[in-house]
Specification:
about 200 residues; mainly alpha; 9 helices; about 75% helix; Ceramidase; transmembrane helix; membrane; transmembrane
Length: about 200
Amino acid sequence: MNWNAYVDGYCERLAPGLWGEPLNSIGNLAFLVAAIAVWRQPKGRVFGVLIGLVFLGSTAFHLLATRWSAAADTGFILVFVLYYAAMFPHLFFGASRKVSWLGIPVFLAFTAIVASLGGGLYLSALIGLVVFAIILKGEHRRRFAIAAGVFGASLSFRTADHTVCGNFSAGTHFVWHLLNGLVLYLVATAATLRHSKKEAAPK
């Protein structure tokens, strides 16, 4: 496989070139802002780094439009999602760290089932956010409900990208970036706040 092969996956890109997707590339700054904001929070370093990697992967892909940058884009998103799946049972339900890591194979199996029905990683992540909003209480429920709503809208803009090309040549993928920066901030903040409260609780 030629990892440097050109990839044209979005309405905005018309030809190879470093600045072929200006709006999609600039929209990635939402991830950078989210990464910095989360990094500055107590217990936010790991999530800040992971969001920063999403920023780097997505920026590389939309600037270079090659197979290897596409793999980096998807790969860093997957790393964030899987790490969150591994930390969620520990942070929100008090599972031991050893047991909590089982969240990764559980999520992967669920994603495989969703994919077999015509969905994929993003749909399974959306369903996960909805489930989190249902099973949690109080402030966490509200935060995940908002994240699920924003991510649902984000997926709609991602799906509509090629549909609107005839009327809006820039497409709508850049809105996916803007909204997802907010989604990553919301879910990462929920985790860091929960982590801080767990450590502050009397033992």
